[in-house]
Amino acid sequence: MGAHALKNPLWHNAIFDEYDALERYQSWTIFPSISTYNLVVLAAQLFCWWGQFIGHYVFEKRAPALLDNFIQAFLTGPFFVLLEALQMGLGYEPYPDFHARVKAKVDANIKEWKENDRKKKL
């Protein structure tokens, strides 16, 4: 089948037409090349992740939650930050006393963590 197509001049013309169209419309690449904007975004992401790790180790003296639980770090963590920003900026609460309940749970978790950390040091 392939040898027959190679001998057919119509096939050659079709291939050259296709090649010309690919060149004309620059449709060779499926993904665009890395632009300056993409490099800036990549640099910002790397800088922020680096800041997260350094901040956690230097100031909190513990590993970031990313290392404990990937689901929490990538799914529930961003929602928590979004809700915190909406609450602080707009006073938004999904239901009455939501912020107070979440803050109480966070404070209890921090207290528990500190107690466990203190016990480990003894």
TrEMBL record:
Highest taxon of source: Eukaryota
InterPro entries associated with the record: Mpo1-like
Gene Ontology CC: one annotated term: membrane
Keyword Amino-acid biosynthesis assigned: no
Pfam families per UniProt: Mpo1-like
Keyword Transmembrane helix: yes
Chain segments annotated as transmembrane: 37-59, 71-90
Coiled coil: none
Key words of the record: Membrane, Transmembrane, Transmembrane helix
Endpoints of the signal sequence: none
UniProt protein name: Uncharacterized protein
Organism (species): Mikania micrantha (bitter vine)
